[in-house]
Amino acid sequence: MIDEARLHGFVHKALGDVSSALTASLVVLGDRLGLYRGMADAGALTAAELAARTQTTERSVREWLAAQAAAGYVEYDPTTQRYTLPAEHAIALTDESSPACVSGAFQSMTAAMRAEPRVAASFRSGCGLGWHEHDPELFIGVERFFRPGYNANLVSTWIPALHGVQEKLEAGARVADVGCGLGASTIIMAKAFPRSSFVGFDYHIASIEQAQQRAKDAGVSDRVRFEVATAKNFAGIYDLVTCFDCLHDMGDPAGAAAHVRESLATDGTWMLVEPNAGDRVEDNLTPVGRLFYSVSTLVCTQASLAQEVGTALGAQAGEARLREVITGAGFTRFRRAAETPFNIVLEVRP
Fold first, then answer.
1. Measuring CA to CA, which residue among 282, 276, 267, 222 is closest to residue 245?
2. So where are the chain's domains?
């Protein structure tokens, strides 16, 4: 027998998820068009006033505002027909210096969704979908999503949590940032530790080109360079190697770990930042786990499958699985040095 109440409850939930997906697209629109920035600190606005402030058309803005009010992103006063963006929401939607900013998450995830037909093909073929094959908005959005967290934690908390690393960086150390993407983490470290030298490595040529320009714009190109290389063939010997949110994307994480070990100076350190996940599926059946499993299905697992070996750790690999991969590459010291609700920071040494 079908439980009608359960059926209708699930349909209601599913339609809520459809609404959430559509809201994500509207958030990207609001970010791209400056609608949230136009509302921040502006008080209550009519659709016409917001359209005038953002050089958009009133009719489209009016519909967008109604949808945003229904989603709980803005507040609506029916007596004045005005809309307000609460200050707390403005931080999350406009302040890219805040670790609470979510604009990049929406940009990256809507970009990832555009690959659904090719991901479906990979489900059948098992060939995966390379990071470089995604919509370029994914690369920009991922950097925007991670950068506020790195700004808030990398220099103030994560590096000090590693044994002796901050002192080395202050004195002058050689650092390799492997899987650097657009270079946010590399540049943050270079700004904080001017006596050290930094090399960012990534296999994605377009990302390296953008990272080089960003280093120039940040005024750190005298001590930062970016090179195209994989985690298994980057060159040099380093006091510190870092991998931010990328090991689980690699086709051969064990091979990458072995190369990192060979690339560390005596008493060198590998700082590995990965998603904060439990070791079992049932540990991750949470809102954050839902997010990580979803992006892992569309992006992370597919990226690994598209490479040699294709280990496909996934974004929810868990600390035990990471330990197994890393110690299998010859490392003997492995500990959780720090964590946030979204990340764990692992200190790894030979």
1. 276
2. 4-94, 104-349
Query: CATH: 3.30.428.10, 3.30.1370.60, 3.40.50.150, 3.30.450.20. Which one for 104-349?
Result: 3.40.50.150
Q: pLDDT 10s per residue in the chain (350 long)? A: 999 999 999 999 999 999 999 999 999 999 999 999 999 999 999 999 999 999 999 999 999 999 999 999 999 999 999 999 999 999 999 999 999 999 999 999 999 999 999 999 999 999 999 999 999 999 999 999 999 999 999 999 999 999 999 999 999 999 999 999 999 999 999 999 999 999 999 999 999 999 999 999 999 999 999 999 999 999 999 999 999 999 999 999 999 999 999 999 999 999 999 999 999 999 999 999 999 999 999 999 999 999 999 999 999 999 999 999 999 999 999 999 999 999 999 999 99
What is the C-alpha separation between 104 and 141, in angstroms, rounded? 4
CATH number of 4-94: 1.10.10.10
Fold: same for 4-94 and 104-349: no
Q: Show Cβ contacts of residue 161 under 8 Å, excluding neighbours closer than 6 positions.
A: 337, 338, 345, 347
